[in-house]
Amino acid sequence: MKKITVIVLMLFTALNYAQGIELNGTISAQGNQIKNLQDPTEAQDAVTLSVLLEKISELQSQISPLQATSGSGTVTDIDGNSYTYLTYGNQVWTVENAEMVTYRDGTGIPQVTEATAWAALTTGAWCYYSNNETKGKLYNWYAVMGIHDNVESTPNKEFAPEGWHVPSNSEWTALENHLIANGYNYDQSATENKIGKAMASTTGWYSSTNTGAVGNDQSLNNSSGFNAFPEGSRYSSGSFGDGGYNAVFWSSNESSANNAWYSDLTNEESNLSSDDYFKQDGFSVRFVRD
């Protein structure tokens, strides 16, 4: 899977380069002057155009099957945000964090900035980390579950795009087991949970000297392509923290009336961990295909 993903990206780059050549004007291609590809007036220009179009066709024919084999592509939410996805064993995961501010049926998800108001919530809401628009979006668990009002008889909304859902705790465990079994531990072992570096982004983490930790030599991170960035959290009190230290993701499972399960990576650790915390907390969200 690692090799296929790299090949797909290389082919996309080459295709985009070829398609980006202007069809009207004088362009230098490897030292050869191409005066007008749209209406070639010289034999060498016509030949060059023919070769380029043939190469583009060949690249496209290679991209399609490789993309299908690798299970990579994009899905778009109701707000028009596009998310890259990759296949891990029998699962297909988005490898970018949720960004929508609207449930699947068009109902808006409120943005709540004030700390006291956030702490009192029992319905869905989102915020930017530290209320900073340059940061990622965080959601409380009520938003993840589509709980948009306090009327028990009202059906919950759908949070994820059509054909997708917020992963359960068991689906997070399945991803963990797949990565361990397929050599993504930092020491290439196939036992224990040491997959943190393989899942973490290559930037954004506070540094660590711990062997195999996410924050230790970040250039070696993200071999799985999961690209977990340390957006941090919003606590149930409404305050913010852990930016640069943690990437925390909700699951769809509650552990009690007040708590729900999450999975997270930490800069000082080498593993993906799981625990439960207050439903009022604000965490990042990923999607799994139905």
Explained architecture:
The chain has helices at residues 2-19, 43-70, 115-119, 141-144, 169-181, 196-199; strands at 27-29, 32-34, 73-76, 82-88, 91-94, 126-128, 137-139, 164-165, 233-234, 240-241, 246-254, 259-266, 273-278, 288-289. By secondary structure, the protein is α+β, with helices and mostly antiparallel strands. It folds into 2 domains: 2-70, no CATH class; 75-289, no CATH class. The strands form 6 sheets. A 3-stranded antiparallel β-sheet has the order 3-4-5. Strands 11-12-13 form a 3-stranded antiparallel β-sheet, with no helix packed on it.
Strand order of the largest sheet: 3-4-5
Radius of gyration: 23 Å
Quaternary state, please? Answer: single chain
Instruction: Work out the count of structural domains.
Output: 2
Mean pLDDT: 86
**What percent of residues adopt helix (DSSP H or I)?**
10-25%
Number of helical regions? 6
**Termini, distance in Å?**
21 Å
Topology as H/E string? HEEHEEEHEEHEHHEEEEEE
Largest sheet: 3 strands, antiparallel
Structural class from helices and strands? alpha+beta
Shape: globular
Low-confidence stretches: 1-37, 63-69
Number of strands: 14
Instruction: Give the DSSP E fraction (strand runs of 2 or more residues).
Output: 15-25%
